[in-house]
Input
Amino acid sequence: MDSIIVTGNGPLSGTIPIAGAKNACLTLMPATLLSDDPLTLTNAPRLSDIRTMAELLGSLGAEVSTLQGGQVIAMSSHALASQRADYDIVRKMRASILVLGPLLARFGHAEVSLPGGCAIGARPVDLHLKALEAMGARLDLREGYVHASAPGGLKGGTFEFPIVSVGATENALMAATLAKGTTVLKGAAREPEIVDLATCLRRMGAQIDGDGTDTITIQGVDRLHGATHPVVTDRIELGTYMLAPAICGGEVTCLGGRISLLASFCEKLDAAGLSVTETAEGLTVARRNGAIRAVDVTTAPFPGFPTDLQAQFMALMCTAGGTSKLEETIFENRFMHAPELIRMGADIDVHGGVATVRGVAGLKGAPVMATDLRASVSLILAGLAAEGETIVNRVYHLDRGYEHVEEKLRAVGALIERIPGR
Output
């Protein structure tokens, strides 16, 4: 397996282009299953998870082509050969469950393996299934597969999510576009990726209102047509690279960034002693007076502090002045990066869903192990500010969510290189 070596090299300076959102693109790609006509996505990220979704769609008989170096994805589902998503592909990525709603809505039946993904908690799919049941789906779980049917087609219904679920909202939203009648989703997720999906579906002819709020109303239509849609900026990649100058010092502009994508995160950066300036080209981040203050964080669904930036923010807090508490409310088992940061000299205690971080004068490079996608990049950020050399092992997680991370960080002055595995 590949490793990444990072050597602390002082302040950073320059610009970093931010890619299209992985989590948005992984949701937009299954939308092609809703129509016979072509769907083209621009500003697509070039990641292994995107390739896995393309492989899954291809296994169903969809035509998927990547153009312009992978930044354009052209898809067509006019001749699907199967409505069965096999375990061998689905196990690689949890987002694979998002083919269930579109297949069921368009064809009246689907078989989808229960998914795999990062080891950051159970993340059950029960809300996906309950939302589809509210539209008349018949579901049977056996031998590791969801067997779904709707012989007369899905029918509009009302479903209230007991807890916010981005994936379940996305699955239900796509399914409802072809259901007969009106569907109301209450307690829906409000993330920018949900708004991006709804925007794309409207371009395809769907009738959707209320995206970006907790109540989404969908009036089903008989068919959807083709469209071209630009993928929204990746707010998690954006936040990750905003933390690079926060940890190392210097000034970096993240091209394509907008405060509206990360308002609560930007508020925490401000409280920690950082300036975030929005310009026409993106967001510029710099320390205000050279010192970083400890700040408490509690993860929450959008518009709260993103769970996908908790690990990276912990890396910042490791050398902040004072003591911070980071509470994780979305996923269990999401502090697995803490022991690796401790290997670098951090002072962290974890009790249940709360991590207490006491800032230290500095970190020291060490061999560390990436345990999941966001943990892997948090260790790279920590290594940028550490004394000496940090070797991050098992970085295959990293390639699922960050494209060309070494090149982007080298462009602003970081000393970082990838060592191919043997």
